[in-house]
Amino acid sequence: MTARNRELAALLFVGVVGSTAFASAWIASSGELTADWVVWVGVLLALYLAAHVVTRVTVPFADPTLLPLAGLLTAVGLTVIYGLDPVNARKQVVWVAIGLAVYAATLLWLRHDYRVLERYKYLFGVSAIALLLLPSVPGLGERINGVRLWVQAGPLQFQPGELAKVLLIVFLAAYLRDKRESLAQGRLKDLGPLLAIWGAAMLVLVQTSDLGSALLSFGIFLAMLYAATGRLLYVAAGLALFVAGATAVHSALARVQQRVTVWLHPWTDEKVYCAINGKLELRQNCDSYQLVKSLYSIANGGYGGTGLGRGTFETIDGTPLIPYLNTDFVYSAIAQELGLIGAAGVLLAYLVLVARGMRIALIARDGFSKLLAAGLTFGVALQTFIIVGGVLRVVPLTGITLPFVSYGGSSILSNFVVLALLMLVSNRAVTAQRR
Amino acid sequence: MNRQLARVAGVAMSLLVVLVVATTYWQTWARPSLAERQDNEIQRVAQFEIKRGPILDEGTVLARNREREVGGRTLYFRRYPQGGLTAHVVGYSTAGRARAGLERSLNGVLTGADRDLGSLVQQSLDELGGKPIVGDTVVTTLDLDAQRVAYEQLGSRCGAVAAIDPRTGRVLVMASSPTYDPNLVEERFGEIERITADCAPSAALLNRASAGLYAPGSTFKVVTASAALDSGAFEPSSTFDDPGYCIAYGKRVNNFDTSRPFGRIDLATALQYSVNSVFCNIGQKLGAQRILRTAGRFGFYERPPLETPDSERLASGLYRDGELWFPERNQDVDAGRMAFGQERLLVTPLQMATVAATIGNGGLHRRTYVVEKVVSPRGKTTSRTTPEVIDRAVKPTTARDIGDMMVRAVQGGTGTAAQISGARVGGKTGTAETGVAGRNTTWFIAFAGPEGKRASVAIAVVLENQTSTGGATAAPIAREVMQALLSSGANT
User: Fold this and answer.
1) In the prediction, which pLDDT does A30 show?
2) From A394, which residue of chain B is nearest by alpha-carbon distance?
């Protein structure tokens, strides 16, 4: 069985699982299975089959698990989002369609040799910074929840930071592969441009208060630096830099202090000052409200969960309990509805995705491909860790999306670009192996 | 580069494994404690989709469900047809203010969460079929007629009545005044806060019978006398000189009526007439620790056993700075004053009813319980409470002698107001002065049974802010409630 046939089989299997899941959410919300359900399921399956055909033509030897895994994760995300609000699910389908189109376009564009990207590394570096700066441009940026992350373009809101992350990884892969020898020998002079680009990115992120993305970029940077040079000293220095930076940010930004306090002590027995309403409140009713409610949601799932579309996210009079449920907190919705079994299943999907991605990095022949695949894959793993770990109170909570699952266009788009790049690297590596 | 890449892969995958571990922690290990938290609205809302089991008392419904369609789902809200009659035992289950009483402590049973595997499988199948989960039915041991008598008798006075069957430990009456209507908790809580009675704050939500702490006054002499006889150093016929007062720590402690000293008096007569000086002397001889150890065998220093939540039951004993306290040295406590119920002793009515029941039951301290049985939705009894002896509190002879003294107190002593024709009643009065005139805490504890038979009722009555004595205020209430219990068919 060829790789593509395995991919097709896996996609059809995911289709069956996804349609069943979606059917149960559908029944839970409307009481019966109507013909509309077929349209939803059919559209989604058709989209993925189309993507499969493009894959078959452009990268025939690429890893067969990545596309079905992406399909599984988007299906889980859509099903949960549908249960919360069908209108958002409809928008999300459109975004998945656009995402798959971008995936196909990327494959078609770079099918001969994606390594042309290497040549434009500084362009990528600079445009990453430009993208990050976009929301700060007056008249263009949109401030949501105290954070400038969005760009308003007509009816569409766009979060350029998501795409900037991918561009940064491409830049880092190209740059590090160029300079890894000298860096490994400790020629710090070559760190210059690197630190400049990276530092600018960090500055922008801190300036826009997007701490989650800052943490993510920093982690990816360290991982790629280590992979390229093999020097733990860089990692140690980087971590020291991080601790110093974090301490500085901690004392400078009230927002960061608040996050850390909430993380360490979400529950108080006595009332403390609440900045939201200026009164004395228990912290679980004020600053840590989101986190605590989300933990209750997760705990309510237990082993088997409440069932798709049957989770409790509102009070009896219909007031929503958890804000940003379909973006930052989508995992707490999944964990409640699917329980430990389902949530662990979703995490397992990420685990397989990461394992396959790292395998691509291992079998790739050239440094750029290795670093690119490793950087992109590590990015997916770290991003998942930061948001799910935040929701689970493993690390302080910083708002960032769950790859392929969270509601939101920019996130879906950039994740499909990541997927396309991994497929390209994989195809090339396997082709080289076969020769 | 592959070695580094393998390490990076290792780190990436461990990060995800950490997430699996953390999810497991929250969904299994931490789940029960999160579900218990008062601000966990998700848990509360989710539980309203469960068809909660009713709470019954024989044939009478104490708590039932009312269905309501909210946003496409059927939710089950609670109604309490008996209103304030059993409010403190049954409690409430609401969306806005969490839960109390049996509704809180037996939540697992009432929502069907505490079931065995077979039932859980059946339940999961029902769930898949879209049927609501149905909880188990709880049946209480209360005697509603006597409960009603207790509330009528208490009237607007603040206080409590607790009655037990000494032969089993069944709680027959648990009344706390003022009471409240649990149906108002959800939406008209303000009305409960505005309830007034002969005390301030009226604290209607407090279950005074098991969580109200009062100075026991002379009712504690029953415990002291038990310790005295059990020690072997005293007999009912041991005689004392009563000058009308006793010197404790250089200070004079008066009898209730100093104008009429008894002169030479034996122990039995001293209990009959509640003579403080005699017990003061006994206390000084025995020492505080010995008396408190006897009290411990009656159940002091432990929360009185019952199915209601822990927070709604308090332990009796010596209290210091608001904390339960057992003296490490005898000289830390004024044993003379403690012996007749003063000196920072605080007790609950349920505990004092247990003391009376233990004496009436030949010295066996039984576990008190208010849940008769739990019945599954299909009518199968899944658990039935069996009577259980916790401890032998005092020797059988001690119990018999103390019982006789208490009977004498009712026949011709301080407790004559509790006489019931055709029944053998033994009782002890108590009047604890708070130092403010008209603010006495008055008590009556008693056991009773048909003439020539074992005692079948034990009771404790406490009243706050009284001008008169326990014999005049609490004993008549005890008589009415005991009479109701003795005449009811269920208790023969």
Assistant:
1) 75
2) B22
Average pLDDT on B311-320 reads 93
Identify the pLDDT of residue A148: 55
Confirm whether the ipTM is greater than 0.85. yes
SS3 assignment for chain A: CCHHHHHHHHHHHHHHHHHHHHHHHHHHHHCCCCHHHHHHHHHHHHHHHHHHHHHHHHCCCCCCCHHHHHHHHHHHHHHHHHHHCHHHHHHHHHHHHHHHHHHHHHHHHHCCCHHHHHHHHHHHHHHHHHHHHHHHCCCCEEEECCEEEEEEECCEEECHHHHHHHHHHHHHHHHHHHHHHHHHCCCHHHHHHHHHHHHHHHHHHHHCCCHHHHHHHHHHHHHHHHHHHCCHHHHHHHHHHHHHHHHHHHHHCHHHHHHHHHHHCCCCCCCEECCCCCCEECHHHCCCHHHHHHHHHHHHHCCCCCCCCCCCCECCCCCECCCCCCCCCHHHHHHHHHHHHHHHHHHHHHHHHHHHHHHHHHHCCCHHHHHHHHHHHHHHHHHHHHHHHHHCCCCCCCCCCCCCCCCCHHHHHHHHHHHHHHHHHHHHHHHHHHC
Tell me whether A354 touches chain B (CB under 8 Å). Answer: yes
Residues 294-353 of A with CB under 8 A from B: 295-304, 306-307, 312-318, 321, 335-336, 339-340, 343-344, 347-348, 350-351
Sort out which chain B residues have CB atoms less than 8 A from A340's CB and list them: 23-24, 27-28
Question: How many domains, chain A?
Answer: 1
Tens digits of per-residue pLDDT, A250-291? 777 777 788 888 899 888 888 888 877 777 888 888 888 889
pLDDT at A412: 93
Q: Quick: pLDDT tens for A1-24.
A: 789 999 999 999 999 999 999 998
**Would residue A274 count as lying in a domain?**
no
pLDDT for the residue B258:
56
Measured between CB atoms, which of B6, B19, B27 is closest to A299? B27
- Specify if A272 maps to a domain: no
Give a yes or no: residue A218 inside a domain: yes
B41-140 CATH: 3.90.1310.10
In a domain, A363, yes or no: yes
Q: Which domain holds residue A296?
A: 3-267+279-434
- Is the pLDDT at A156 greater than 60? The verdict is no
Do the first three CATH levels of B41-140 and B144-181+189-236+290-326+333-371+388-491 match, i.e. the same topology? no
Domain ranges of chain B: 41-140, 144-181+189-236+290-326+333-371+388-491
Q: Please give the pLDDT value at position B492.
A: 46
3-class DSSP state for residue B490?
A: helix
Contact B310, B102 (CB under 8 A): no
Confidence of residue A312 (pLDDT cuts 50, 70, 90): confident
CATH architecture of B144-181+189-236+290-326+333-371+388-491: 3-Layer(aba) Sandwich (3.40)
Of the partner residues B2, B16, B26, the one whose CB lies closest to the CB of residue A298 = B26
